[in-house]
Design a protein that fits this description.
mainly alpha
Amino acid sequence: MLEIGAICLQDCTMILWFSIAALIVGASLFVLWPLIRGGVGENRLAREVAMYEARKAELIRQRDAGEISTGECDAALAEQGRALLVLSRGRAAAAGEDAGKSGARRKLAALMMLIGVPVLALPIYLRVGVPSLPDAPLASRERSQQPFDVETALQKIEAHLAQNPGDVRGFEVVAPVYLKAGRYADAARAYARVIELSGETPERLADLGESLVADKDGLISAEARQAFERALKLDGRFAKPKFYLALAREQDGDIAGALAELEKIAAELPESPAKSRVNGEIERFRAQNKMPSNPAGQAIANLPPAEREAMIRSMVEGLDARLSEKGGTLAEWRQLVQARLVLRQRDAAEAALAKARAALAADMSAVSELDALAAAIKAQPTP
């Protein structure tokens, strides 16, 4: 059995080398064919014949059109024919003299290239390449094509960090993955470990505070507030800690101060998902605290409480029905979400967000703004 396998392996090896040789010869012949075939003089003579035929056709056309006489046409044709005959005889003589030398030179050059290229290529490959490198087993190739599994990767990183608790880079990598996966407490511990091992930076402190807020369902605890304050002390222009500290002022009951701080942050930020999130919070503040920003809103705010409540509910239900049936713009969906929050219908607001995501799924910019609005709602303390 082993002998049969060895013979098969030997045959396969021979077939492989024959295939490689055939490919080399084929490629070389393709490149060297112009040198081997020659025929430059014949091609030039063929072009002269074609030009003679074109002139002949033109002379006949002029004769038939009456532009020249028959005698003139015949004389011109005879002259053209003599010129072509002289040219062909001269080239034949020149070709006879050079044919042997040039043909031999072309064939010798082609033969040298045909032999020389493989002879030079093989030692270069053996020196530079890795011919002894084995093929990747099929099982490992199949594993490399499998989709990336976040949980499996996390388990491997966690096992590594358990054995190497001082690996700062490992904790820096795993912390945002925890945050994105919804494992907020683990994210907070990872960020705290990074700070412990490598020191405080505004970004690390802000990420730690954000993880703590998410872990408390939007409640800004004393520990989170302290992290944001330290981040702001290191970088007074950093928007993220400013944003959460503004929400903390709302949590403390300072609605006007919180709104003023959010408006200041929005004015400083460029157009981005972060600015959309801040603007979403500003709209929520105005809606929930009866701070209209236009004349129509002011008119509704001046109604008696019962009428105002009934009008708002009627408008919200009508807007919800229209958007659910016909769809709408991002601004209209955001208006619906904010209106639901005004009515303290948080579940309905989240349902409206889900509908908006489905309706605007093709618009990545709109989806990004909706995600920012959803994060703002999550950061809001539950009534």
